[in-house]
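WARN retry 2 of 3 for item q-0093 after timeout on previous attempt; input resubmitted unchanged.
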Amino acid sequence: MFGFFKNKFEKDAQAAIERRAQQMAPKAAAKVAKPAPASSSRDDDIARMQAQVGQFVTPERQALIQNALKVQRAKRQILDQLDDESRAKLVAMAITALMREDGPPDSNKKK
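OK item q-0093 returned
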Protein backbone atom coordinates (compact mmCIF):
# COMPACT_ATOMS: atom_id res chain seq x y z
CA MET A 1 0.00 0.00 0.00
CA PHE A 2 2.78 2.42 0.92
CA GLY A 3 4.58 1.59 -2.31
CA PHE A 4 1.71 3.14 -4.27
CA PHE A 5 1.92 6.36 -2.26
CA LYS A 6 5.70 6.42 -2.53
CA ASN A 7 5.57 6.07 -6.31
CA LYS A 8 2.87 8.75 -6.59
CA PHE A 9 4.77 11.23 -4.42
CA GLU A 10 8.03 10.56 -6.25
CA LYS A 11 6.39 11.17 -9.65
CA ASP A 12 4.69 14.35 -8.43
CA ALA A 13 7.90 15.62 -6.83
CA GLN A 14 9.92 14.89 -9.96
CA ALA A 15 7.37 16.70 -12.13
CA ALA A 16 7.46 19.72 -9.80
CA ILE A 17 11.26 19.76 -9.85
CA GLU A 18 11.32 19.63 -13.64
CA ARG A 19 8.76 22.47 -13.92
CA ARG A 20 10.79 24.60 -11.51
CA ALA A 21 14.02 23.84 -13.39
CA GLN A 22 12.42 24.95 -16.65
CA GLN A 23 11.24 28.17 -15.02
CA MET A 24 14.67 28.84 -13.56
CA ALA A 25 16.64 27.91 -16.70
CA PRO A 26 16.39 31.32 -18.42
CA LYS A 27 17.33 33.12 -15.21
CA ALA A 28 20.30 30.84 -14.53
CA ALA A 29 21.49 31.11 -18.13
CA ALA A 30 21.52 34.90 -17.87
CA LYS A 31 23.64 34.75 -14.69
CA VAL A 32 26.24 32.34 -16.06
CA ALA A 33 28.99 33.91 -18.15
CA LYS A 34 28.97 33.10 -21.82
CA PRO A 35 31.36 30.26 -22.61
CA ALA A 36 34.62 31.16 -24.27
CA PRO A 37 35.42 29.85 -27.74
CA ALA A 38 36.57 26.23 -27.88
CA SER A 39 39.59 25.92 -25.63
CA SER A 40 42.67 24.04 -26.60
CA SER A 41 43.07 21.89 -23.50
CA ARG A 42 41.18 20.02 -20.87
CA ASP A 43 42.73 22.14 -18.09
CA ASP A 44 41.32 25.30 -19.65
CA ASP A 45 37.87 23.71 -19.75
CA ILE A 46 38.11 22.70 -16.09
CA ALA A 47 39.27 26.17 -15.03
CA ARG A 48 36.41 27.81 -16.94
CA MET A 49 33.82 25.50 -15.37
CA GLN A 50 35.19 26.08 -11.89
CA ALA A 51 34.95 29.83 -12.44
CA GLN A 52 31.32 29.47 -13.49
CA VAL A 53 30.55 27.31 -10.45
CA GLY A 54 32.29 29.88 -8.27
CA GLN A 55 29.90 32.53 -9.53
CA PHE A 56 26.89 30.32 -8.84
CA VAL A 57 27.86 28.89 -5.43
CA THR A 58 28.26 31.84 -3.11
CA PRO A 59 29.60 31.45 0.45
CA GLU A 60 26.09 32.06 1.80
CA ARG A 61 24.70 29.32 -0.40
CA GLN A 62 27.46 26.93 0.69
CA ALA A 63 26.68 27.67 4.35
CA LEU A 64 22.97 27.02 3.76
CA ILE A 65 23.72 23.75 1.99
CA GLN A 66 26.06 22.60 4.76
CA ASN A 67 23.45 23.48 7.42
CA ALA A 68 20.72 21.65 5.50
CA LEU A 69 22.94 18.57 5.20
CA LYS A 70 23.61 18.60 8.96
CA VAL A 71 19.88 18.82 9.70
CA GLN A 72 19.15 16.02 7.22
CA ARG A 73 21.81 13.77 8.81
CA ALA A 74 20.41 14.45 12.29
CA LYS A 75 16.88 13.60 11.16
CA ARG A 76 18.12 10.45 9.40
CA GLN A 77 19.84 9.28 12.61
CA ILE A 78 16.63 9.77 14.58
CA LEU A 79 14.58 7.86 11.99
CA ASP A 80 17.16 5.06 11.82
CA GLN A 81 16.73 4.47 15.56
CA LEU A 82 12.96 3.88 15.27
CA ASP A 83 11.61 0.35 15.43
CA ASP A 84 9.55 -0.95 12.51
CA GLU A 85 6.18 -0.38 14.19
CA SER A 86 6.97 3.24 15.08
CA ARG A 87 8.32 3.90 11.60
CA ALA A 88 5.13 2.47 10.02
CA LYS A 89 2.98 4.67 12.27
CA LEU A 90 5.04 7.72 11.36
CA VAL A 91 4.71 6.99 7.65
CA ALA A 92 0.95 6.51 8.00
CA MET A 93 0.65 9.82 9.88
CA ALA A 94 2.69 11.64 7.25
CA ILE A 95 0.62 10.22 4.40
CA THR A 96 -2.60 11.14 6.20
CA ALA A 97 -1.35 14.68 6.76
CA LEU A 98 -0.29 15.04 3.13
CA MET A 99 -3.50 13.61 1.72
CA ARG A 100 -5.85 15.78 3.76
CA GLU A 101 -7.95 17.84 1.44
CA ASP A 102 -9.00 20.48 3.94
CA GLY A 103 -6.53 23.17 4.97
CA PRO A 104 -4.86 23.63 8.33
CA PRO A 105 -7.12 23.02 11.35
CA ASP A 106 -7.17 26.74 12.23
CA SER A 107 -8.63 27.72 8.84
CA ASN A 108 -11.79 25.61 9.37
CA LYS A 109 -12.79 27.16 12.68
CA LYS A 110 -15.79 29.50 12.66
CA LYS A 111 -15.37 32.78 14.47
